[in-house]
C-alpha cells in the first residue's frame, strides 16, 4: 500500500522553527516530484512548496519564500520542510503529496497524499 506519513508538527511561538518530515513507501519515490500543502480551518488547501525528483528545482508560495526550505533524501524516501521565522498565519495542517515526474502547484495533479501533521504558531 502507498503511504505518506508526515511528522514533526506541533505548537511553536511566532519566530520559532519546525522541521516537518514525510516518509514514503509503496511506490518508487525517486520518480515522483514532491509537494507540501497546508489547510487551515475554513480555508481551502494551499500550495506551499514543491521539489523535483532529484532535488535540483524547488518552488515556493510567495508567503513562505525566504523562510521555508523544502528538501528530499531519496535514499531515505523522505521529503522535508524546514520552517523558520514562523508566523501565526502559518497555522494549518501540513500535508505532503507525490506527483509522478513533475513539479506542480496544483493539488489536483498529485497522485498520493499523506494524512497531515498539524502546525500551530502562537503569537
Quick rundown:
By secondary structure, the chain is mostly beta strands. It contains no helices and eleven strands.
Describe this structure in words.
- The protein is mainly β.
- The chain has no helices and eleven strands.
- It is 0% helix and 51% strand.
- It is globular, with a radius of gyration of 13 Å.
- The relative contact order is 0.32.
The secondary-structure element order is EEEEEEEEEEE
- For the record, give the distance between the C-alpha atoms at the N and C termini, rounded to a whole number: 40 Å
Share in β-strands: over 45%
Largest sheet: 7 strands, mixed
Which features does this protein show?
123 residues; mainly beta; seven-stranded mixed β-sheet; globular
Please describe the topology of this protein.
Layout: E1 3-7, E2 10-13, E3 18-25, E4 32-39, E5 46-51, E6 58-60, E7 68-73, E8 78-83, E9 92-100, E10 112-113, E11 117-122
Parallel strand pairs: 2-11
Antiparallel strand pairs: 1-3, 3-8, 4-5, 4-9, 5-6, 7-8, 9-10, 9-11
